[in-house]
C-alpha cells in the first residue's frame, strides 16, 4: 500500500514531458525555421532541449525547398542530442521514396508492379511515370513522378505542379526537371536513408494532456492521416509497423473521411490520435489533426504542444516564453 501511494506521489511530482507535434511542412524551409524558433521561445530552452518532437509527415512537394527541409530534419539529432525525434511517413514521402526505390520489398515476395492493377483506370489521366526504372516501381512512385494531363486541381483551387502529388518543386530542389529519372542519382544517400527510415506509425505511452478535468495521462498514436474506423486497430497497427508495401494505397497515410474520426475502441481507453494530412486544424476531444498549411504558400505551418494543447504557428510573433 505504501509503495502504491509512493508511485502515485512520484507521478504527481514528475513534470510531464513536453511533446511537439509538427504538421505538414511541404517543402517550405522558411516556415519550418520560423516555427522551430517559435516553439523554442514558447516552451523555453530547458524543456525544449529534452522535448519529444513528432513530425507528422509530408516533408516534400508543393513548396520550393524540399532538399533544404530534409537537410534541416537530418541535422536535428546532432544539434539537439537530448531531444527525441520521430519522423512519420506521409503519403507524399512514401511516393517520393517509392520513386527512389527505397521502400521495403513486399513481404510476400510479389513485385511492386502488382500495385498498379487496382488503379490502372487512372493511368492515362494521371500520366504515370514510364521512364527508366518504372517496370517494378510501386504505384505511388509512378503517380508521384507522372505528368498529370489536366492543369487545375479543383479540390485545392490551384494548378497542379507537375503531377497529382505536385512533385515538380521537389525535382527542381534537387536541380533536375520534373519527371526526370536523373533524380534517382541527384538525391544524396543520406536523404534516401532518411526516406527509407520513416516510420508509418508511432505509439507513445504515458503522455499527458490538459483537459477540462485537469491533467490526464494517455496513450498517443501518431499516424499521418489517421486510422480507419471500421477496421480493428491492432490489425492496422501491425500492418503499419511492418510497412506492408503490397498495399496500393495505404489508407492510414492517404485516406480522408474514412480516417477522420477516432476509432471507437480507442475511445474506451484514453488515447490521443494525432495526424496531419487533411489541410485543416481540427481539435475534437483526443482527436488532433494538425495541418493548417496544407502545402499552400499563404497558409501557416502549425504545431501542437502537449500537455498544454497549445497551437503554435510559424506566423506567430512570440517575443517571450510563457
Provide a brief overview of the structure.
The chain is α/β, with parallel strands linked by helices and 322 residues long.
Describe the fold and architecture.
By secondary structure, the chain is of the alpha/beta class. 32% of the residues lie in helices and 18% in strands. It has helices spanning 2-13, 29-43, 45-49, 66-79, 91-100, 123-126, 139-144, 168-173, 183-186, 189-197, 233-241, 251-254, 264-268; strands at 19-22, 52-55, 84-87, 152-153, 158-159, 202-211, 214-222, 271-275, 281-284, 287-290, 302-306, 310-313. The strands form three sheets. It has a five-stranded mixed β-sheet with strand order 3-2-1-11-12, with helices on one face. Strands 6-7-8-10-9 form a five-stranded mixed β-sheet. Strand 6 (202-211) and strand 7 (214-222) form a beta hairpin. It is globular, with a radius of gyration of 20 Å. It starts with a helix and ends in a 9-residue tail after the last strand. Mean pLDDT is 94; it is low at 1-12.
Amino acid at each position: 500500500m505504501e509503495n502504491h501511494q509512493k508511485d502515485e506521489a512520484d507521478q504527481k511530482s514528475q513534470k510531464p514531458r513536453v511533446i511537439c507535434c509538427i504538421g505538414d511542412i511541404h517543402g517550405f524551409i522558411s516556415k519550418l525555421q520560423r516555427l522551430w524558433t517559435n516553439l523554442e521561445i514558447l516552451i523555453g530552452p530547458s524543456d525544449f532541449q529534452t522535448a519529444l518532437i513528432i513530425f507528422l509527415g509530408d516533408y516534400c512537394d508543393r513548396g520550393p525547398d524540399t532538399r533544404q527541409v530534409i537537410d534541416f530534419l537530418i541535422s536535428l539529432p546532432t544539434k539537439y542530442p537530448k531531444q527525441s525525434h520521430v519522423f512519420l511517413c506521409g503519403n507524399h514521402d512514401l511516393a517520393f521514396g517509392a520513386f527512389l526505390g527505397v521502400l521495403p520489398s513486399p513481404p510476400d515476395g510479389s513485385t511492386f508492379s502488382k500495385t498498379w492493377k487496382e488503379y490502372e483506370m487512372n493511368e492515362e489521366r494521371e500520366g504515370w511515370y514510364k521512364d527508366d526504372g518504372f517496370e517494378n516501381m510501386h504505384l505511388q512512385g509512378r503517380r508521384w513522378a507522372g505528368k498529370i494531363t489536366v492543369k487545375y486541381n479543383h479540390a485545392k483551387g490551384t494548378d497542379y505542379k507537375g503531377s497529382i502529388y505536385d512533385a515538380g518543386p521537389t525535382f527542381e530542389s534537387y536541380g533536375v526537371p520534373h519527371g526526370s529519372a536523373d533524380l534517382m542519382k541527384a538525391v544524396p544517400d543520406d536523404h534516401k536513408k532518411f526516406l527509407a527510415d520513416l516510420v508509418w506509425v508511432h505509439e507513445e505511452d504515458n503522455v499527458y494532456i490538459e483537459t477540462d478535468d485537469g491533467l490526464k495521462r494517455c496513450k498517443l498514436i501518431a499516424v499521418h492521416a489517421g486510422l480507419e474506423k471500421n477496421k480493428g486497430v491492432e490489425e492496422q497497427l501491425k500492418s503499419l509497423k511492418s510497412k506492408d508495401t503490397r498495399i496500393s494505397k495505404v489508407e492510414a497515410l492517404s485516406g480522408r473521411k474514412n480516417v477522420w474520426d477516432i476509432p471507437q475502441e480507442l475511445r474506451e481507453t484514453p488515447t490521443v490520435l494525432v495526424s496531419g494530412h487533411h489541410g485543416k486544424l481540427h481539435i475534437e476531444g483526443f482527436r488532433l489533426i494538425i495541418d493548417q498549411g496544407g502545402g499552400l504558400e499563404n497558409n501557416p505551418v502549425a504545431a501542437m504542444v502537449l500537455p498544454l494543447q497549445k497551437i503554435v504557428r510559424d506566423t506567430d510573433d512570440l517575443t517571450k516564453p510563457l
